């Protein structure tokens, strides 16, 4: 009797992720816009990318941000992808520190085609993405009909609600 032939590994179907990229400090690649371009190159498996846009800083930072969104495909689950994103951030010189401080690169998982995910240190969809025009604008340019798995609203609807002018008294 011959030994059994091992079965080939089962390939996991790739998931699509929306990744927000932000930078407001020069790094080894140059200005923030160049840092974002270099980070996109490191992400790999990009199926779509937004243009880079400028935005006002959040929190105490005085520096304007460069922001973009990339759609990537990968068989990684959200936790494994987060580990990879943190490794990329560290390779750019990012160190844990002030929450709202300036940074060479910031990579956040915004949405996952698998829906919602929650584990220690990671919540998908990103908890604050629904209020951030600098994420929703570029994201709406890529996937306007993708639905937030928690609210059921499309990215286009979320972007319009953030962009709507508030009435004056």
Q: Nutshell version of this structure?
A:
This protein is of the alpha+beta class. The protein is 27% helix and 23% strand.
Helical residue percent? 25-40%
Q: How many distinct beta strands?
A: 7
| CATH superfamily heading of the domain at 15-125 | 7,8-Dihydro-6-hydroxymethylpterin-pyrophosphokinase HPPK
Low-confidence stretches: none
Rg over C-alpha atoms, rounded to the nearest angstrom? 18 Å
Oligomer: single chain
Quickly give the structural class. alpha+beta
Kindly estimate the percentage of residues that lie in beta strands according to DSSP: 15-25%
What is the overall silhouette? Answer: globular
Cα distance spanning the termini: 86 Å
Rounded mean pLDDT score: 88
CATH topology of the domain at 15-125: Alpha-Beta Plaits
From the 3D coordinates, which CATH architecture of the domain at 15-125 would you assign?
2-Layer Sandwich
Quickly count the helices: 4
Order of helices and strands: EHEEEHEEEHH
Classified by CATH, the class of the domain at 15-125 is Alpha Beta
Main β-sheet description: 5 strands, antiparallel
Task: Describe this structure as you would to a colleague.
This protein has a domain at 15-125: 7,8-Dihydro-6-hydroxymethylpterin-pyrophosphokinase HPPK (Alpha-Beta Plaits, 2-Layer Sandwich). It is 27% helix and 23% strand. The chain has helices at residues 32-43, 78-91, 133-142, 155-163, and strands at 15-23, 46-49, 53-55, 65-74, 106-112, 117-119, 122-124. Strands 1, 2, 3, 4 and 5 form a five-stranded antiparallel sheet that branches. A hairpin with a 2-residue loop joins strand 6 and strand 7. The termini are far apart.
